[in-house]
Amino acid sequence: CPIPDTDGDGVNDEEDKCPKVPGDKANFGCPKIEASVKLNNIQFKTGSAVLLPIALKELKKVNDYLKANTGFDVVVEGHTDNVGKPANNKVLSQKRAQSVVNYLVKLGTPKERLSAMGYGSEQPVADNKTAAGRTQNRRVAFKIKG
Questions:
Q1: Which domain holds residue 62?
Q2: How many domains, in total, are found in the chain?
């Protein structure tokens, strides 16, 4: 009895990490994803989850990319600097990530492809002791699933 290959990509389902989406053998049956969207300005009003107009323009790029590349889901991650109470930062980062998800859904990205996760100040990418570092830590990241 042959082992099934549901998506017909030449990788049997037992070894295929993405059995419902055709992909590349070298990538365990998952599609190769090229990160070709450059984002600079996903910003919010201070202390809130309201997206600034410049962010809406950037998120249009994300939506267009997601429409053209459908073989994966995305976790929208919200991050903050370490100013303020950690619990408040975690809540704010979750609200901001959800705000991004909501806007992408409004633009037409299927909500089933998106989820939001707020990390607060738990995953800094720069030193919170400097203004420049804090600015870098206040960010939204997109993590590809699947």
A1: 49-145
A2: 1
Tens of pLDDT along the chain (146 residues) come to 778 899 889 999 999 888 888 888 888 888 776 554 557 789 888 889 999 999 999 999 999 989 988 888 999 999 999 999 999 999 999 999 999 999 999 999 999 999 999 999 999 999 999 999 998 889 999 988 86
108 domain-assigned: yes
CATH number at residue 57: 3.30.1330.60
Q: What is the distance between the alpha carbons of residues 116 and 114, in angstroms, rounded to a whole number?
A: 7
Classified as helix, coil or strand, 100 is: helix
pTM of the full structure: 0.76
How far apart, in whole angstroms, are the C-alpha atoms of residue 45 and residue 53? 10
Spatial separation of the C-alpha atoms in residues 124 and 83, rounded to whole Å: 12
146: closest CA among 26, 60, 28, 64?
Answer: 28
Q: Is residue 54 part of a domain?
A: yes
Q: Is residue 27 part of a domain?
A: no
